[in-house]
Amino acid sequence: MITVLYLVLLTPVQVTAQQTIPDNKIDWPFRRLIAEQKRADSINQCSNRDTLVKKYDCIIHTTQPGALKKKGFTILAVSPRAVTARVTLTQLTIAAAMPEVKFIEAPEYLKMHPQ
After folding, report:
1. Conformational region of residue 45, where left means phi above 0, alpha means psi within -120 to 50, and beta covers everything else
2. CA angle 23, 84, 61 (to 5 degrees)
3. Surface-to-core class of residue 91, CB atoms within 10 Å of its CB (0-12 exposed, 13-18 middle, 19+ buried)
4. 35-64 burial by CB neighbour count: b if 16+ within 10 A, else e?
5. Taking a C-beta distance cutoff of 8 angstroms, is the pair 79, 41 a contact?
6. How far apart are CA 83 and CA 85, in angstroms?
7. Label partner for 33 (CA 20 to 30 A): which of 5, 59, 63, 89?
8. How would you write the pLDDT of the chain (115 residues) with one tens digit per residue?
């Protein structure tokens, strides 16, 4: 019995947690789009078909642009501290969870301005 307990304690267990999106890393127009998509998905009970098709231009402030390329992001331009990319909402949440990403900014034409 002691041997069995010992093996259970030493056996590595892989635990997957639901990915949390740090709100402070995503510009508010994208947060709104993500919330609308989640609401639509829960109402329609459908897969993320629209999320996979619709892509948005964004500015990703990062310390390591190469990390985004390795994850398969469509990079449009690279500077030392940021990249411009075309991403889906799913990719946006993945980027926000990456430690290399500091902030994801919406371009001016996506931001809503008060009238």
Report:
1. left
2. 45
3. buried
4. eebeeeeeeeeeeeeebeeeebebbbebee
5. no
6. 6
7. 63
8. 454 433 333 333 333 334 556 668 999 989 998 898 888 877 776 554 544 468 899 999 998 999 999 999 999 999 989 999 999 999 999 999 999 999 999 988 765 544 4
Contacting residues for 83 by C-beta, under 8 A, at least 6 apart? 59, 60, 62, 65, 68, 73, 75, 76, 77
> In 3D, which of 44, 41, 43, 45 has the Cα closest to residue 89?
41
CA angle 61, 63, 64 (to 5 degrees): 105
First vs last Cα of the chain: how many Å apart?
72
